[in-house]
Write a structure and sequence with these properties.
With 196 residues, the protein is mainly α. Helix content is 66%, strand content 0%. It has 8 helices and no strands. Helix 6 packs across helix 8. It is elongated, with a radius of gyration of 18 Å. It starts with a helix and ends in a 19-residue tail after the last helix.
């Protein structure tokens, strides 16, 4: 089944088709929500809220449009609404069971280094402002293009590019200060310009 077929069936009330969409996008939604909120429990609640909203609004979805940016927009709105309702203290990743080592890796030292690097990157991302954290999560974790991020956040593409540029500069500085290599998300050069 394709996303378009699933949407058509969902618009006719087919819950199994919606389960298909949930299976396709739940991991990227959850990961994005964790990066945006800094809290796994809150992220899980927000993903559930976003999926419930998506089901309620599925009849208004314009066929032929990509599903992922639409779901991301709903998720962003859910997170922002929740943040407006109450103040959230950002929980920084501290490694207490948040990450598990790769047990298939035969070299324990490499596994520990990789785990420490991931935790340091997550700490750095958690330290970004909410606006910067959102664009980084949507662009690099969710894999949205700059125009899709702009639509998901309801801002102009120039705003997204500016926020990405600033966020990556902050991350580079923080990671260099901690002695880690500067990441190149999705294989992009950390010094290149952010395009569509």
């Amino acid at each position: 089944m394709t996303d378009n077929e699933a949407i058509l069936r969902c618009q006719d009330g087919d819950r199994d088709a919606f389960r298909y969409l949930v299976e396709q996008y739940k991991d990227v939604l959850f990961g994005t929500a964790v990066l945006m909120t800094g809290n796994r429990a809150v992220a899980e609640e927000q993903v559930q809220e976003a999926l419930l909203s998506a089901w309620r609004g599925i009849r208004g979805f314009r066929r032929g449009n990509p599903v992922k940016p639409w779901l991301m927009r709903i998720l962003v709105n859910a997170v922002l609404a929740q943040q407006r309702r109450r103040t959230i203290e950002t929980v920084r990743f501290n490694g207490n069971g948040q990450e598990e080592p790769d047990y298939d890796n035969p070299n324990p030292a490499e596994t520990l280094d990789a785990l420490e690097n991931r935790l340091e990157l997550r700490r750095a991302i958690a330290g970004l402002s909410p606006d910067h954290r959102r664009v980084v999560a949507l662009r690099y974790f969710a894999g949205l293009t700059v125009p899709e991020v702009a639509r998901a956040l309801g801002v102009r593409e120039g705003t997204v590019k500016s926020r990405l540029h600033r966020a990556l500069a902050i991350l580079r500085q923080q990671l260099e200060e901690s002695g880690l290599e500067t990441p190149t998300p999705s294989g992009r050069s950390s010094t290149g310009s952010e395009g569509g």
